[in-house]
Design a protein that fits this description.
Elements: H1 2-23, H2 37-40, E1 52-56, E2 59-65, H3 69-74, E3 86-96, E4 99-100, E5 109-115, E6 118-126, E7 142-143, E8 148-155, H4 158-161, E9 170-173
Parallel strand pairs: 2-3
Antiparallel strand pairs: 1-2, 1-9, 3-8, 4-7, 5-6, 5-8
Length: 176
C-alpha cells in the first residue's frame, strides 16, 4: 500500500512537470522578445533601415528613406524597434519649416533637424503618446527650428550616445 501512494505522487509530479514544460516557451526567441502580441504583429510596419548611409560628424549609420508623402505620413508609426546606429530619413526639397508628432508611435525616438548638411537642432527622447487611442488634438507637435532639408529619426538616446549636437556636419549617401 505505501508503494501505491509513492507511485501516485510520482505520477502527479510528472503530470505537473509536463504541464509546465508545455506551457512555457521553448526558448527566449519563441516569446517574441517580450513584446506584446499587438507590437510583434506591427514589426512588418518598420521600414528597411539599411539601403542608404548617413554620416553625422564621424559617425556612420544605416538609414531608410521616407521620401514620398505616404512614406512620410507613415514614418515609424507602428514600428516597435529602431536598431542602434540605424534610422529613418525624411528629405525635403525645397527646404521647409515642418513639425513632427508621435501619432501611432510605440517607442521613444530622437528627432534630428538638418539643413544644408548640418544638424540645426535635436529633440531628445521624444516619447510616444500614452495610448494609441490618443486624440490627434492631444498630440504634442515638435516644430523644426527653421526650414530644414531633412529630418532624421533615431532610437531614443542615440543622438547623445553618438555625440550629436547642432553644428555637426552631415553627409547623406543615397543608393540609386
Amino acid at each position: 500500500m505505501p508503494h501505491i501512494k509513492t507511485y501516485l505522487v510520482i505520477i502527479a509530479l510528472a503530470v505537473i512537470t509536463l504541464a509546465i514544460i508545455l506551457y512555457l516557451p521553448l526558448s527566449p526567441a519563441d516569446d517574441n522578445s517580450g513584446l506584446p502580441d499587438n507590437e510583434t504583429s506591427n514589426q512588418s510596419q518598420c521600414p528597411d533601415f539599411t539601403p542608404h548611409q548617413i554620416t553625422l560628424g564621424d559617425q556612420r549609420l544605416a538609414i531608410g528613406l521616407a521620401s514620398t508623402p505616404a512614406q512620410q505620413a507613415q514614418g515609424l508609426s507602428g514600428c516597435p524597434l529602431v536598431p542602434d546606429r540605424q534610422g529613418l530619413l525624411f528629405p525635403f526639397n525645397p527646404p521647409r519649416q515642418t513639425s513632427f508628432w508621435m501619432k501611432d508611435m510605440l517607442i521613444p525616438i530622437d528627432i534630428i533637424w538638418i539643413k544644408d548638411n548640418v544638424i540645426t537642432g535635436i529633440e531628445h527622447r521624444v516619447n510616444p503618446p500614452p495610448s494609441l487611442d490618443t486624440d490627434d488634438s492631444q498630440l504634442t507637435k515638435y516644430p523644426s527650428p527653421g526650414p530644414v532639408t531633412a529630418v532624421l529619426e533615431l532610437a531614443a538616446g542615440q543622438a547623445r550616445e553618438l555625440g550629436l549636437t547642432p553644428g555637426v556636419p552631415v553627409k547623406i549617401d543615397i543608393v540609386k
